[in-house]
Amino acid sequence: MFWIVKTKIYHYTFYIFAFMDLSEMVQAKISVIVSTYNAEEWLKKVLWGFTCQNFKSFEVIVADDGSGPATKELISEISEMAFYPIHHIWQPDEGFQKSRILNKAIEACNSDYIIMTDGDCIPREDFVEVHYINKEPGYFISGGYYMLPMNISKAITLEDIEKQRCFNIGWLKEMGIPKTFKNNKLTASGFISKILNTFTPTNASWNGHNSSGWKKDILNVNGFDERMQYGGQDRE
Predict the structure, then answer these.
(1) Is residue 218 within 8 Å of residue 4, measured between CB atoms?
(2) Fewest Cβ atoms nearer than 10 Å: which of 36, 84, 132, 140?
(3) What is the pLDDT of residues 101-129, one digit of tens each?
């Protein structure tokens, strides 16, 4: 199995970690698949991040590879405060079966364009928007992420996400983040981000933490190979 569509890389244009009319809610323009497994602490922060998005016409599909009742309870709780619909797609715990649950989540998507991310990656406020405005027929988008150390990850609060502090390099430095080249993922914008995207050494591969594409293209390549277990199934 392989992708037959062209690719674009936007590693430095957007990254993960970070009222609409009722008529717009009827048909979401974007479906966002978030994969998870027994990780309520992180999933909560991710779903908080989606409540802060600038672009509002989207739905979230939680692809749950067999989590316990706590995940279902969390989703019900967040659904009451979120402006976007959340659909919980669950399967029994039979070991690592991410490919299988992702395929089920793809089928459940109600829009033509799908973003995929992981349940420990907080989306910045423009995350869905940047995917939406850069989508093109015949292409999928490959994005990157900015990894935080555990102590800072645990310290992030709802207020930090609402005020976007956790995406601010100044705040992160105060929290102990060292000065490295990867900080450009948070500070680059406009012309600089285009230059970095153009000359990035990263391959144009499908990255499960931050990629998007057309539902019809994903279905045309038969989705994810369910024979594969942990490691490599996204890039395959």
Answers:
(1) no
(2) 132
(3) 999 999 999 999 999 999 999 999 999 99
pTM: 0.85
Look over the chain and give the mean of its residue pLDDT values, rounded to a whole number. Answer: 85
Query: At residue 188, what is the residue type?
Result: A
Separation between Cα atoms, residue 113 and residue 111, nearest integer Å: 6
Q: Which two tokens mark 51?
A: 């409540």
Kind and range of the H or E run holding 90: strand 86-90
Assign residue 231 a region: left if phi > 0, alpha if psi is -120 to 50, beta otherwise?
left
Q: According to the model, what pLDDT value does residue 189 have? A: 65
Domains defined for the chain, CATH in brackets: 6-220 (3.90.550.10)
Q: For the range 146-152, what are the long-range contacts, defined as Cβ-Cβ under 8 Å and sequence gap of 24 or more?
A: 146/15, 146/16, 146/17, 146/182, 146/185, 146/186, 148/17, 148/172, 148/177, 149/176, 149/177, 151/176, 152/176, 152/177
